[in-house]
């Protein structure tokens, strides 16, 4: 059962529109054998098409815009900038992350405050990848703004942030690709949508550096038996390797566009 | 645990269940780091750590958004479905910090929950469907909270090439990364958080899970026997 994330990155901004007609929801709470039809008719092991574009914000050192289905995120990176005078001297650089939701991002206005811990999670995910020794005494600021929350927000934010950091020219060991998997009954769904997330029995989010095969951030909620967990982890790692390739190709395109 | 001292308390209040889960109660977990533990915790200093610990505990003990897989059985908290439920506020206070705060808090919360008695509530007969029904809280009868499903948190700290369990403050200062795993009695993982920046090889993580399984079993047995002993003491006095 290999994960097969389907992807499209075209130079011109188009993405496959999602079928707006909603399939009728089967009763979730009846028995453990749930036959869940995904609203956008993907297979259980299919990721949403990923779209990345760098250079979204002109005034920032680096920026990126990512769109995974309905989840739209914009990240801008400022720095390395002088650390505030109040902070102590440090001979390695500092990373400052902030994730915020627009008020119109969620179906119910202003619900983004549920996700206050995303900033620290983003920090931990990126910390292991950035070579902090290259910018001592300075701070790199990463600001993420979720424009629309369509499920699986944090993984998209992390992936977009690493593309933005690459765009800004910050030295990193590797790009950080991140994928999350939801568990509904016995089924594993990769890259859940908001609706699937609200019904999930458990979730696993992994942020990893594909070429180094190292996990920088890992979050598990819900009850998992060990073999089930192994399976889910293998899925995520495989999917993030493929996502890493897409991120790389997007960056190469952007670089080659500039050269022309 | 060693020199780490934490206090956990559980308070219950009547409230309305959320619209999305009318048959489940609500639990909120907050952690406060007192300056008696570290002078840097005074004022806003300890806020970051508190927030991190609170969210880690919520991840580990509360399970997915649909409420399934939660360590704490939320459906036992409902009084009148859709209208009245118990809100549990779990507060943790760190008094002395010598490393491994998360494990200590997890154990304290488990013990506090096992000591919790929810007063039984009598609901007055048929109120109109959108009014709050009259409830009469009895001071006498208590329902013991069921904690056999509550998981125990084990933190494995990676220092250099080895990983250790139950790190003291000194050991934590040298850590490259740490993984906190919460495992329940059946050996299933209820939650897992990775703290610290350095990347970890996935095989290392799998190894850590099996170690955590082993250690948490011992910890759970010890905890249960301690709680039973404490309860027996209380009944006598």
Automatic annotation (TrEMBL), chain B:
<dbReference type="InterPro" id="IPR050590">
    <property type="entry name" value="Exosome_comp_Rrp42_subfam"/>
</dbReference>
<comment type="similarity">
    <text>Belongs to the RNase PH family.</text>
</comment>
<dbReference type="Pfam" id="PF03725">
    <property type="entry name" value="RNase_PH_C"/>
</dbReference>
<keyword id="KW-0271">Exosome</keyword>
<dbReference type="InterPro" id="IPR015847">
    <property type="entry name" value="ExoRNase_PH_dom2"/>
</dbReference>
<dbReference type="GO" id="GO:0071035">
    <property type="term" value="P:nuclear polyadenylation-dependent rRNA catabolic process"/>
</dbReference>
<dbReference type="InterPro" id="IPR027408">
    <property type="entry name" value="PNPase/RNase_PH_dom_sf"/>
</dbReference>
<dbReference type="InterPro" id="IPR001247">
    <property type="entry name" value="ExoRNase_PH_dom1"/>
</dbReference>
<dbReference type="GO" id="GO:0000177">
    <property type="term" value="C:cytoplasmic exosome (RNase complex)"/>
</dbReference>
<dbReference type="GO" id="GO:0005730">
    <property type="term" value="C:nucleolus"/>
</dbReference>
<dbReference type="GO" id="GO:0035925">
    <property type="term" value="F:mRNA 3'-UTR AU-rich region binding"/>
</dbReference>
<dbReference type="GO" id="GO:0034476">
    <property type="term" value="P:U5 snRNA 3'-end processing"/>
</dbReference>
<dbReference type="GO" id="GO:0034473">
    <property type="term" value="P:U1 snRNA 3'-end processing"/>
</dbReference>
<dbReference type="InterPro" id="IPR036345">
    <property type="entry name" value="ExoRNase_PH_dom2_sf"/>
</dbReference>
<feature type="domain" description="Exoribonuclease phosphorolytic">
    <location>
        <begin position="149"/>
        <end position="212"/>
    </location>
</feature>
<dbReference type="GO" id="GO:0000467">
    <property type="term" value="P:exonucleolytic trimming to generate mature 3'-end of 5.8S rRNA from tricistronic rRNA transcript (SSU-rRNA, 5.8S rRNA, LSU-rRNA)"/>
</dbReference>
<dbReference type="GO" id="GO:0071028">
    <property type="term" value="P:nuclear mRNA surveillance"/>
</dbReference>
<dbReference type="GO" id="GO:0071038">
    <property type="term" value="P:TRAMP-dependent tRNA surveillance pathway"/>
</dbReference>
<keyword id="KW-0963">Cytoplasm</keyword>
<feature type="domain" description="Exoribonuclease phosphorolytic">
    <location>
        <begin position="1"/>
        <end position="119"/>
    </location>
</feature>
<dbReference type="GO" id="GO:0000176">
    <property type="term" value="C:nuclear exosome (RNase complex)"/>
</dbReference>
<dbReference type="Pfam" id="PF01138">
    <property type="entry name" value="RNase_PH"/>
</dbReference>
<dbReference type="GO" id="GO:0016075">
    <property type="term" value="P:rRNA catabolic process"/>
</dbReference>
<dbReference type="InterPro" id="IPR020568">
    <property type="entry name" value="Ribosomal_Su5_D2-typ_SF"/>
</dbReference>
<protein>
    <recommendedName>
        <fullName>Ribosomal RNA-processing protein 42</fullName>
    </recommendedName>
</protein>
<dbReference type="GO" id="GO:0034475">
    <property type="term" value="P:U4 snRNA 3'-end processing"/>
</dbReference>
């Amino acid at each position: 059962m290999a994960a097969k994330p389907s992807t499209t990155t075209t130079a011109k901004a188009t993405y496959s529109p999602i079928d707006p007609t909603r399939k009728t929801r089967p009763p979730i709470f009846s028995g453990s054998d749930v036959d869940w039809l995904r609203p956008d008719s993907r297979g259980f092991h299919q990721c949403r098409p990923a779209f990345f574009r760098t250079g979204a914000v002109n005034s920032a050192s680096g920026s990126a815009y990512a769109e995974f289905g309905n989840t739209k995120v914009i990240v801008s990176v400022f720095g390395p900038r002088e650390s505030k005078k109040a902070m102590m001297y440090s001979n390695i650089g500092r990373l400052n992350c902030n994730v915020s939701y627009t008020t119109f991002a969620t179906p119910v206005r202003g619900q983004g405050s549920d996700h206050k811990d995303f900033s620290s999670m983003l920090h931990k995910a990126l910390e292991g990848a950035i070579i902090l020794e290259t910018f001592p005494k300075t701070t790199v600021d990463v600001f993420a703004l979720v424009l629309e929350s369509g499920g699986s927000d944090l993984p998209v934010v992390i992936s977009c942030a690493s593309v933005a950091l690459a765009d800004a020219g910050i030295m990193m060991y590797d790009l950080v690709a991140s994928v999350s998997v939801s568990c509904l009954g016995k089924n594993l769904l990769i890259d859940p949508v908001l609706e699937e997330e609200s019904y999930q029995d458990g979730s696993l989010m992994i942020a990893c550096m594909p070429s180094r095969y190292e996990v920088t951030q890992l979050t598990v909620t819900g009850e998992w038996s060990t073999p089930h967990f192994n399976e889910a982890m293998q899925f995520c790692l495989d999917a993030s390797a493929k996502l890493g390739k897409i991120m790389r190709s997007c960056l190469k395109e952007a670089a080659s566009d500039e050269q022309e | 645990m060693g020199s780490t001292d934490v206090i956990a308390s559980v308070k219950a209040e009547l409230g309305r269940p959320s619209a999305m889960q009318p048959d489940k109660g609500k639990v909120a977990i907050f952690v406060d780091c007192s300056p008696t533990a570290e002078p840097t915790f005074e004022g806003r200093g300890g806020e970051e750590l508190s927030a991190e610990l609170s969210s880690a505990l919520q991840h580990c003990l509360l399970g997915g958004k649909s409420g399934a897989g939660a360590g704490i059985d939320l459906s036992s908290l409902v009084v009148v479905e859709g209208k009245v439920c118990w809100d549990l506020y779990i507060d943790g206070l760190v008094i002395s910090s010598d490393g491994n705060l998360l494990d200590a808090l997890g154990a304290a919360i488990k013990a506090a929950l096992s000591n919790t008695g929810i007063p039984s509530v009598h609901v007055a007969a048929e109120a109109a469907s959108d009014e709050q029904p009259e409830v009469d809280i009895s001071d006498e009868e208590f329902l013991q909270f069921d904690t056999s499903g509550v998981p125990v948190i084990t933190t494995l700290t990676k220092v250099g090439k080895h990983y250790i369990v139950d790190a003291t403050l000194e050991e934590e200062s040298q850590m490259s990364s740490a993984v906190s795993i919460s495992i329940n009695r059946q050996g299933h993982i209820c939650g897992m958080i990775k703290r610290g920046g350095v990347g970890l090889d996935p095989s290392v993580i799998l190894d850590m899970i099996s170690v955590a399984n082993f250690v948490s079993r011992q910890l759970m047995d010890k905890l249960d026997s301690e709680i039973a002993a404490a309860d027996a003491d209380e009944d006598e006095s």
